[in-house]
Specification:
Radius of gyration: 16 Å
Shape: globular
Low-confidence stretches: 1-18, 191-209
Number of strands: 8
Order of helices and strands: EEHHEEEHEHEHE
Oligomer: single chain
Structural class: alpha+beta
Strand order of the largest sheet: 1-2-3-4-5-6-8-7
Number of helices: 5
Helix content: 10-25%
């Protein structure tokens, strides 16, 4: 948890707002709060078990953040992502297998507790993830959109993309309802270099609205 000096457990400064919330890397101690937010936001068949979340947070390639209330240090939103190859889709409850030669940030799971709606936490978490993808020179981001989240993801610049292979179509079919694969191209900066998350502590001020 961030201390009163704003430092996170990994030594990086927490990305703070001037008001009620801050962003930081997710930690294993956050798992009960993450699972509680997941249960609040998703239908039961979409809830991933504790074992998958443990794999995710223990893997060095995982890119997971929480947004917490500064007054209570309670995570009220989270985003889980990882390096992937464009067109590859992780099946529901599939093993956590990040790509070693990635060209895409896969945003696997985003949820905001109903008690924190209206503060822009989802958009702020996505912006932080895309900033990290840009720093690593990944030219794409992708996700599986479920439930009624399409308007939100369109606002973040994602568009529906038809899966290109039978394997990816089969993975998409494991999600209930009208699940859609969505992608977004990311602008690449000339001269930029890839950076590891553990070395990238250049968090900027974030304002939630």
């Amino acid at each position: 948890m961030p201390g009163i000096d704003g430092s996170g457990q990994d030594g990086c400064p927490a990305r703070t707002t001037p008001s009620m919330f801050s962003l930081r890397r997710a930690q294993p101690a956050d798992l009960p709060a993450i699972l509680a937010v997941q249960a609040q936001c998703y239908a039961p068949q979409l809830n991933e078990p504790l074992s998958i979340w443990q794999q995710r947070l223990q893997h060095p390639a995982a890119l997971c953040w929480v947004a917490e209330a500064q007054a209570t240090a309670a995570p009220l939103a989270y985003l889980a992502g990882y390096p992937a190859c464009l067109g590859s889709i992780t099946a529901l409850n599939g093993d956590f297998l990040p790509a070693t030669a990635a060209n895409c940030l896969y945003l696997h799971d985003l949820a905001v507790s109903p008690v924190a709606n209206g503060h822009g936490l989802g958009g702020a978490l996505v912006a932080e993830a895309l900033r990290m993808a840009h720093a690593r020179q990944w030219p794409h981001a992708a996700l599986v959109c479920v439930q009624d989240a399409a308007p939100f993801w369109h606002k973040q610049g994602f568009t529906v993309t038809e899966p290109a292979t039978g394997e990816s179509r089969a993975a998409l079919a494991t999600y209930p309802g009208a699940a859609r694969y969505m992608t977004r191209a990311l602008p690449m900066q000339q001269g930029a270099t890839r950076s590891d998350f553990a070395d990238d502590c250049r968090f900027r001020q974030a304002r939630f609205r």
